[in-house]
């Protein structure tokens, strides 16, 4: 997969994901969004806090970064055909 990440004003990051198995851009990718946040944190693009907001085509994801350095993904889920 390929993820494009951008620092945003209204959210912490904006992520766009092209999924190689689907051969198209997806509405959301939790793994890709988590990886983008980890890189953004290591590069100093986002500050240190416990909850990060990630904007994806399908809506908004929330990533919790806890004291044991684990990531927890949350957000609304909508199924479509």
Features:
81 residues, 6-stranded mixed sheet, 1 helix
Structure explained in plain terms:
- This protein has 81 residues and is α+β, with helices and mostly antiparallel strands.
- It is built from 1 helix and 6 strands; from the N terminus they run βββαβββ.
- It is globular.
- The chain starts with a strand and ends in a 6-residue tail after the last strand.
- The relative contact order is 0.22.
Q: What would a concise description of this structure say?
A:
By secondary structure, the chain is α+β, with helices and mostly antiparallel strands. The protein has one helix spanning 30-42; strands spanning 2-7, 13-19, 24-25, 51-56, 59-65, 71-75. The mean pLDDT is 92.
Protein structure class: alpha+beta
Number of helices: 1
Task: Describe the main β-sheet briefly.
Answer: 6 strands, mixed
Shape: globular
Oligomeric nature of the chains: single chain
Counted beta strands = 6
